[in-house]
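so the lab meeting is tmrw and i was supposed to have these ready like two days ago... anyway. pasting both below. for each one the top line is the aa sequence and the line under it is the structure tokens. i havent really looked at them closely yet so no promises
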Amino acid sequence: MEFSHISVLLNETIDGLKIKPDGLYVDGTMGGAGHTREIAKRLTTGRVIAIDQDPDAIRNAKEAGIESDGRIVVVENNFKNIKIVLKRLGVEKVDGMILDLGVSSHQFDTTDRGFSYLYDAKLDMRMSQTGLSAWDIVNTYEESRLADVIFQYGEERYARRIARRIVERREIATIDGTLELVEVIRSSMPGAALRSKIHPARRTFQALRIEVNNELGMLRDALENIVDVLKPGGRICVITFHSLEDRIVKETFKYLQQDCICPKEFPICQCDKQKEVLIITRKPMIPSDEEIEMNRRSRSAKLRIAEKMEVEE
């Protein structure tokens, strides 16, 4: 199956990078390589390093011959390891990096990956296809921990009811499939919630995916590492798809833009913190009505951009 994915906010992200023809850029979430290819088009002697943790994305990119373009280097890894990736390539600093944090269309539409609540598949949701799976969480987490995951990462008001019903069901037999889990979720919710336009399993599936892939913890760690490897004037562009991710990006950029974090009552700064970035997008950029009409999955996307400043050693 071809690794298909429509790049969201494509022009806005590429323009936001302020690409130099001889620059070195990183696409931290290659997916279907839409952003990667657009960056490469604007390069002459420059290069773009395309990173993805999904073996399917790597295999499909190589089968498509993406590396035949001498400006593109494909790396199987996680963007949180950006410093390790660059060190292995003999690179110290880059001119810009993008992150598109959405789940790709390929991952949603490949039924055996278990990301979707619309298809019957084994509970999985692992982007890297290794480690902890959604099956492990649903069938082994204690009730209170499961409820916390669903509430915190899915912002699901019925999290405790859902967790309780999951535990009750798995005492009879393990919950193995996506649609089996959907039915458990449905049975946990009142009629009014089931009549909502939002699918009753959407928030729970989002929560499980975030927990499986440690998406929020990974993002917090990665953003500061990415800023560290940017050259002065280099930019980081981040596309998020739900409020929890966007809040982390917003707060991290805000922190990095501060030049003092001392308590207000301190008469003189004692923290020696330096301003590391300039926030370019005071408010996040969002898709146009035309883009949303063409790609419904773009409707919740937000793009935030920051630029690395000169920092005294």
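ok protien two:
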Amino acid sequence: MKVTEILADATEPLFTFELLPPLKGHTIDAINSAIDTLMPLKPAYINITNHQREVIYVDRPDGLVERRLIRKRPGTIALSAAIQYRYGIPVVPHLICGGFTKEELEDQLIELNFLGLDNVFALRGDPPRGERRFIPQKGGYEHTEGMVNQISAINKGQYIDPTLSDPVSASFCIGVAGYPEKHAEAPNLDHDIMMLKRKVDAGAHYIVTQMFFINERYFSFVEHCRQAGITVPIIPGIKPISRKSDIDLLPQTFHVDLPGELVEEVSSVSSGAKVREIGMRYCIMQVRQLLDANVPGVHFYTQGNAEITANIVAKTFKR
């Protein structure tokens, strides 16, 4: 079932979440355990992330250092299919521009179509760890808009090779990301919303926001999007604070603001259990306020903390 169909049929806000593929060399067991924890709370669908290659430097026997690119979390498509057919729930695999050519993207879409996965989430992707800026793959895309255009073309039966005989149309539902506090590389929010509208005009069906900790930023973002002519659903993305280091790392990594009272409260405690308690309490307040505003749903960035997400959902969503 497509995300847009799920949204259209919903009589109350949806609960959804995303998971990371396991590190290379690990099994699917931890993923299944996280899903087993969250399935009783009736998620509408599950997202599976995709990850850019990382830069590592390896000492060579001759004393020089060799630069290598490695992918530490492969398997997004296979994992998505395994989850969808094991649990009978729609899965939304992420597709990224970084590290992939247009031909490789087309091959991934063909595989997804064969597997019966008709939801995708299109992202540019972050620069590889160890690199300061995003550099597109040769023969790939610099911006998500191009990827959305290609997915939309396949939905019309238009493939890269124009000589194909009677090519079959796909039917992908396309999600894209929005940034309530603007993308880190955008010169201002108005420019960022203009770029978002281009993704929607290219064929995106809905938007999920980057995490935020000040709800007014989300409400203001939605208002600006509507004024810009963006009419698709805009789903808020949420992450609970779970570690003391989050108050330093999250603003650095995701370029989001944290409210002063939350920072002060987390800074004043020393135990991890106290930090999680504060983070859960604040997130519950956030979610309740969003649900009271009748948002389409709340998307949780679990980042390995399924139990925390389950506790928050149990205290906020009617089930």
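from a quick look at the 2nd one: Residues 272-292 form the longest helix (21 residues). The mean pLDDT is 93. will dig more after coffe
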